[in-house]
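Your task:
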Amino acid sequence: MTFLDDVRQELCAAEVRSCCRSWEIRGFLDAWGQADARRLRVHAHSAAVARRLYTLLSEAGLRRVTVTRRPRSGFFVLAHVGDLRTWPPSGWPRRRCCRRSYARGLFLARGFLNSTRHGYHWEVKTPSETLAETARRALESMGIKGARTGRWQKGWVAYLKDAGLIADWLGQVGAHGSLLGFENARVTKDMRNKVNRRVNYETANLARTVAAALRQKENIRLIERTTGLDDLPPGLRDLAKARLAQPLASLAELAESLDTPLSKSGASHRMRRIMARAEQIRREHARRGQVAGGQTRQEQFRPEAPS
């Protein structure tokens, strides 16, 4: 079974108080827009949901409650309201337990819950915008802020996207076993995402470090073949030789390996001066015609390919 099936099974087995029974039924009816109907015909996704609604309607005193099944359509619960003019209850449930039962009925009727590596999604479909707002209000009355409503292809929907809010809802409607599984999957997913972000960060940082080191090595080789490293000031010459000796080291590692260690910012400043000197040499040879555009011919000043 899917996680959604597990949640439905657990909700169908949840205990319901006598004061909450009619409100859970009201949730079923509101989800299908049948709160004012005298003859009920409610679709159920599974046998467990059909049994749940059948039991609730029978205990509420409705007559001729039946369950039918149609191929490829699922189960349908039929009932006759008859003379029960005060049923279903109108207004808004005063007790917190009744509001939870109402939310449970909404979900069992037309709810959906999904937890994938792409995110979390909870929703209840309704036939009208008014009923979608009622579902959102039911969640807010339970302390679950952040529910939204929107158009759906055949009506309206109230939905949640935050994992914490979904976990809160599971706990309040009585799906405690599903809540434990949901939290376990959530922690595992969050940990995996953190590890992946860290690995991606380290990989990108390493790639940038290697690319920068290879560019620096090429520019230093250019200076070495033209004017020579001795043409550089002593501080720059030492850093240039350290780069040639350690072609893949980071700038911080180069700074620490010098005879007179530098800070990373100090090494970065000196390396920029070395790069500027290499660019100056390229411009000078370009003006002399020895290097044209993208270096159209091989000559002694062409940087060596990275080893």
Observations:
- Residues 290-301 have pLDDT under 50 and may be disordered.
- Strands lie at 39-44, 63-70, 74-80, 111-116, 119-126, 148-152, 155-160.
- Residues 188 and 249 are 35 Å apart (CA to CA).
